[in-house]
Design a protein that fits this description.
Radius of gyration: 33 Å
Number of strands: 5
Strand content: 5-15%
Shape: elongated
Amino acid sequence: MRLSGVRPDARMPGVVARPRERRLPAVVRVVLCVLAVFVAIGGVLVAIPVGYDAYMRHVVHSKEGETALRDTMKGIDPHAFTKEGVIHSYTIDDSKTQHDPMGGILVTLYANGDFSLDVQVTLDKPLKEDGSRGPLIGEGGGWSAKLGNLVDENEKRLGDKPSAWMLMDNKVSIQQAKLRLLDAV
């Protein structure tokens, strides 16, 4: 039984005392709300790059990405993935996969699992004349001097003409000589 104007007290039998409600001061509540907003915004800003990194890894490891990377390795070593070639396999370094400022994906590969035989390539879908995108291709990039020397020695051993990628060497090749003749005309 409760009497009006009388506060329930623990000394009264059958009446449970309620603790007095304490509210935080208004300033503290405002500060906590502002902090909660900043934490929420920070969580969103952190989640966006993580999602994009997962997307890039998905593209690189997709069937189309694997095809583009194999074609790139075959461009470096025409006999890649065969008994005669220098490159037999490659490993993708996901920790070095990053967004290219021009819109592609920068990927680092290691030939035959050897970290000294590294290849950097940019995966991109080139824009067609009709405005659509073409298939994923590997373009640009480069590779270590050790890998270049191994491929060059292998081509000399096999007696093949140098691949198109070997034009980047400082050595004179048949293709460069033909270009000089065309420039002279």
